[in-house]
Amino acid sequence: MHTLPEWTDLRFFLELARAGTLSGASRRLEVEHTTVARRIDRLEAQLGTTLFDRSREGYELTDMGQALLPHAEAMESAALAATEQLSGAEVAVHGVVRLGVPELFAVRVVPPLLVNLLQANPELNVDLLVLPRFANLANREADLGVMLDPPTTGRYMITKLATFRLYVYASPDYLARHKPIREHADLAQHDFVDYVQDRLASRELTYLDELGFTPRRRLCCTGMPAQIEAASLGMGLIMAPPYAVPNDGRLVRVLDQFFAERSFWLAAPTDLYRLQRVRAVWNMLRDFADSQPSLFVHDRDEPGRARRRA
Prior knowledge:
The structure is a single chain. The protein has helices spanning 7-19, 22-29, 33-47, 63-86, 103-108, 110-120, 172-177, 224-232, 270-273, 276-291; strands at 52-55, 58-61, 95-102, 124-131, 144-147, 156-170, 191-195, 216-221, 238-240, 252-254, 258-269, 308-309. The chain is α/β, with parallel strands linked by helices. The chain has two domains: 7-86, Winged helix-like DNA-binding domain superfamily/Winged helix DNA-binding domain (Arc Repressor Mutant, subunit A, Orthogonal Bundle), CATH 1.10.10.10; 91-310, D-Maltodextrin-Binding Protein, domain 2, CATH 3.40.190.290. Strands 3, 4, 5, 6, 9, 10, 11 and 12 form an eight-stranded mixed β-sheet that branches. The relative contact order is 0.14.
């Protein structure tokens, strides 16, 4: 190899590695898919090696492609940092941040926070990815994400955002039509609303299995918004965190002595975390979670009082 590869070719390489298809990479890069293919062919010819295995399903990195990936990511990180610094972003936060969050967290928690953040930073734009699953940071679907399962491999900044508790709720109408719930054993006689079990975004969502009995799932949904609505209409009991429950009286808490506990994690690729605009959104979420514990744990929970934990 007599010349160094062009950075733009390496950018095409990165986007194809993340998207896995020419069409996906072309959408990210806003070019024709033939342009992506041509750039990859040129890069492979220049390097004298095959970077992708081609198939009907898409493009998958070869061993040489995997070896090139961290170097291309390091160049991308340096280019982003240089652009931010030279554009004056060390003084003013600007640019686009893609934030991936679970559905109800996005609806109930995030938008009010963005009002102040965007007013304070007029050059900042946020793409809020409201997902029925958790954002895929490995393929750069989002710049940072809120998730139940933090990445275990790769270069990421990770912090615990909040520990939250899932309590049992029911609609007043449901409670009026069914047997009273005075103790934990009574729950076994009731219907539940839950996730579709073979479509779970995380094994951490199997908290209903920790009730101590096999729950009678009368309705299962792929997302919690639909579960909340169904439970509000009296279709069964639901386990949910406080932030997910609308403050309109349609759902009331059942059995104060029982809850399950989980944690949300905040994660971002290390190179993107260095960008001021990403840290601005990161810090917004951290500060809010620290200042609003009642959204994650009921404020009437008494630390010294016995609780049954799932």
